[in-house]
Design the sequence.
């Protein structure tokens, strides 16, 4: 089990999220980034639906170890677990991603999330989809310039925000 304080995405939200995502794009072979991975539920779900690779970013060492063990137990060799903060990870050089899940702890401020999303800009593939999960009382994320907000949906205490890299940018 992930450490106390990890807040996994509810099954209801996860099902709705992936239903919408799969109506937008084919997940076969895509590269997924699961920021603030926690239990890794979103990244593992993407892998089970055909994603080619998932990178899990988790700052808590114990949670990162659980992610590694779970990936092995589930038979997913196509994973990377980075035991770093989301901000440190996204500002580093590296591969580009097709789908990004950002499910920060509710305590992460709007400004902290803005830094992460803007730092992530250079790591986004040409038509990447970003999905941000926040407390329903939080503000909509401050998207990077090349990301167009698509929609927001509330599920009780949770809000899910969708953005996609603009085709002209």
Sequence:
């Amino acid at each position: 089990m992930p450490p106390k304080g990890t807040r996994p995405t509810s099954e209801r939200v996860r099902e709705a999220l992936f239903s919408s995502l799969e109506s937008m794009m084919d997940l076969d072979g895509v590269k997924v980034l699961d920021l603030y991975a926690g239990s890794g539920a979103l990244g593992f779900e993407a892998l089970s639906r055909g994603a080619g690779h998932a990178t899990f970013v988790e700052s808590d060492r114990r949670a990162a170890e659980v992610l590694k063990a779970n990936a092995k137990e589930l038979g997913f060799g196509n994973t990377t677990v980075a035991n770093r903060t989301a901000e440190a990870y996204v500002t580093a050089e590296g591969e580009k991603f097709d789908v990004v899940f950002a499910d920060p702890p509710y305590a992460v401020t709007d400004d902290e999330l803005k830094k992460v999303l803007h730092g992530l800009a250079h790591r986004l593939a040409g038509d990447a989809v970003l999905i941000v999960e926040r407390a329903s009382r939080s503000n909509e994320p401050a998207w990077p310039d090349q990301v167009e907000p698509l929609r927001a949906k509330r599920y009780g205490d949770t809000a899910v925000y969708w953005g996609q890299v603009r085709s002209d940018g």
